[in-house]
Amino acid sequence: MTFSKTSRQQTIQDLKNEPLDLLIIGGGITGAGVAIQAAASGIKTGLIEMQDFAEGTSSRSTKLVHGGIRYLKTFDVGVVADTVSERAVVQGIAPHIPRPTPMLLPIYDEPEATYDMFSVKIAMDLYDQLAGVTGTQYANYTIDRNEVLQREPGLKADKLKGAGVYLDFVNNDARLVIENIKEADELGAHVASHVKAVGMTYDAQGRVNGLEAHDELTDETFKINAKLVINTAGPWVDKVNALNTKAPKHETLRPTKGIHLVVDDSRLPVPQPTYFDSGLHDGRMIFVVPREGKTYFGTTDTDYTGDYKHPRVEQPDVDYLLKAVNNRYPNVQIKLADIEASWAGLRPLIANNGSSDYNGGGANAGKVSEESFNHLIDTVNNFENKTAVRGDVEKAISQLKTAHAEETTNPSQVSRGSDLKTAENGLLTLSGGKITDYRKMQPVRLI
Ligand SMILES: Cc1cc2nc3c(=O)[nH]c(=O)nc-3n(C[C@H](O)[C@H](O)[C@H](O)COP(=O)(O)OP(=O)(O)OC[C@H]3O[C@@H](n4cnc5c(N)ncnc54)[C@H](O)[C@@H]3O)c2cc1C
Hints:
By secondary structure, the chain is an alpha+beta fold. It has a domain at 5-58 and 174-250 and 417-446: FAD/NAD(P)-binding domain (3-Layer(bba) Sandwich), CATH 3.50.50.60. It has helices spanning 8-17, 29-40, 77-93, 117-131, 145-151, 173-186, 237-241, 315-328, 370-384, 390-407, 438-441; strands at residues 20-25, 45-49, 64-65, 99-108, 141-144, 160-170, 190-193, 195-202, 208-215, 221-231, 256-264, 274-277, 285-291, 294-298, 302-303, 341-347, 418-422, 428-432. The strands form three sheets. Strands 1, 2, 7, 8, 9, 10, 17 and 18 form an eight-stranded mixed β-sheet that branches. 48% of the residues are buried. The structure holds flavin-adenine dinucleotide.
């Protein structure tokens, strides 16, 4: 039966009557990714979403599929490799959704700059190596100050040294979720929106064997039986885990809020996505993205405890972003009255991963081995002293990649920044991660 509003009642009947192998709570990208992989593996799968599909964080992102180039500043190659290689896979699966779009990274001669012209080239070369785009039309390059200002005359000229240009992808986050949900349904999963998990059911040994679910449209409460239940409720995972009254509680998340603001592109014309240091001495970076006649920019990163369904854009968020953008585009001076739209989302950030403006792993995320790291540093020093050539640096970079490739052969490894936990009574929880690596964090191979 085609997945549609009219098939929903039948789906709910199926959820009530057919015992499942796997029941997924949450229809954002994480749940949708698990559903498609499980259904494709022949696992009898159900998924319930209490709102519309993707109505949580998965429609409120910066809408990029990318690897987080800034992590290369600290050589967090593991984080970047996970995501940047997935970028290509996601594009292969859904070429109509993420679009290859070179990103401009202006470089300023400022004490707290993430990159200078030399280190940005190293980072971009490594990024391209990990992504497999070296030597293609999408290979990175640098441009000088004059060319940057030709492309983006509004950018601050003072202390501008030039820019790096490297490949990333502009995404349609909610659509990616919907396509996965539809495909999961076609593969036989029973998928229903506006159905909320309100309680757990248990077998005689106290193990979770299903859910009590509430149909938010008809007000009916019913039971769903499943051998395994997985909580993929994004920022809500701790709230869903609180329904599991027969297991000890462990707080997993420290949700943080991120907002974006939208202006007409005539107010902030940028020919390509641009990514720069905030300039506000907080080590953060800001994206400015052109899209369909508008330009949006973000994001912020502040601890959040309010209403999870309706996080709001507040004055301090707006003030922060306007300050950062107006600092980089001094002749533009965006004002409150220019803002046409906005959105706010909650990062399902793993509590001990530390804060991150791009939801990836924090400072402890997988680094390269000390040996290969030291070798790269030595080679870069030699290059600067003119006792090594560029090819030596590239070789050292590719050796870093080799070190990571060995690491990733461990089959139990899920994406860094994400977390898979099993409660004592069997409830699985999968949280964290990013849209970019949603496939990599899915645990079906572990079930
Ligand atoms: C500001 C910001 C910018 C970001 N930018 C990017 C980016 O550019 N690229 C990128 O790759 N990632 C980005 N991310 C990260 C990415 O958006 C998230 O990691 C991802 O969307 C999380 O998906 P999820 O499925 O885990 O959570 P969600 O999308 O929130 O899905 C969880 C779902 O569970 C449902 N739910 C909750 N409780 C229940 C219940 N009791 N019963 C049934 N359903 C329930 C919710 O309604 C929700 O739809 C960004 C995040 C933020 C906040």
